[in-house]
Amino acid sequence: MKFASPEWFLLIPALLFIGWFWKSLRLWSPLRLLLVGLAAFGLADPKLNMQEESMDLWVLLDRSDSTEDLVDKGLPEWKALLEKNRPNSRTDEIHLLDYATDVIPHEAEGVTMNRKLTRTGLALSHVAALAKEGKPARVLLFTDGYSTEPLQEAAAQLQARGIPLDYRLIRDQVDNDFRMAHLDFPERVQAGEPFLISALVQGSKDGTVNFILRRNGQQIAENKVVLTKGIGRVEFTDRIPRGGGFQYEAEVRTDASDPSMEDSRPGNNKIARWIEITGGPRV
User: What is this structure's pTM?
Assistant: First the structure.
């Protein structure tokens, strides 16, 4: 049991001291002593820990195209360290999950995984759904940090469940890498309302790359993006006249005819997000 405000227990000696001088208060009588003790106990805000003493550790392994080889190389060492430092080997459990476009158990055999996307948000939401109520849990994420979907919703789910997240970035030193770093627009707008779409492209060197924007799989824009100090930004406006859910996908491509702009990691060249178009007011 823990107390949120233990300073209220100081009320007991203070009242006893007052009762010693003012005998008329009769604070030394058994009934009043009991009432003082109960009042201090209640004001101290006692909290009883109902959770189990054991813990679940959810280990998420990024198996997308950009990190698969790095995970295979470091996984034996990571597993050995986790097992060695497990506080209670009998009750604490370690759950290994592979993720890319989908999320599957690490020990699953005969399952073909699509490695084109890095859906870190889906993997975190998966853990939030599987974690047991009343049992402490923690997430350890091994990734290169380049998720192809936003993480706000998954982070809110983990926070609501009280599940902390630790991560280790696994990256190989490469000379040529161009990637989609961010795709930003409102989560919800009304039908026919214009909105701004902004994208951030990052690269290991300066140059010009091709940027393509698709909506529900149909290309709606294409532009050249100039990278300065490894960063390039591009903005578009769009307007959707009908309600529903729509997926935007941004992709960066380098010029295949230019060897100096060769992209060594095409697995992080795409990023996707959804927007909700509401129907608007009705009569």
Answer: 0.56
Closest CA to 116 of 74, 63, 72: 63
Distance (Å, whole) CA 81 – CA 96: 14
Which amino acid makes up residue 57?
A: L
E strand or H helix that includes residue 115: none
Q: Does residue 158 come out as left (phi exceeding 0), alpha (psi in the -120 to 50 range) or beta?
A: alpha
- pLDDT tens-digit map of 121-152: 999 999 999 998 878 899 999 988 888 888 88
Give 98-124 pLDDT, tens digit per residue: 998 899 998 877 777 888 888 899 999
Q: For 194-203, how does the pLDDT look when each residue is reduced to its tens digit (9 = 90+)?
A: 999 999 998 8
Tokens at 228, concatenated:
């300065």
Q: How far apart are the C-alpha atoms of 29 and 264, rounded to whole Å?
A: 82
Q: How crowded is residue 61: how many other Cβ atoms within 10 Å of its Cβ?
A: 23
Statement: residue 210 has pLDDT above 60: yes
Q: How many CB atoms lie within 10 A of CB 139?
A: 23
Q: Which amino acid is residue 273, in one-letter code?
A: R
**Rounded Cα distance, 88 and 100, in Å:** 31
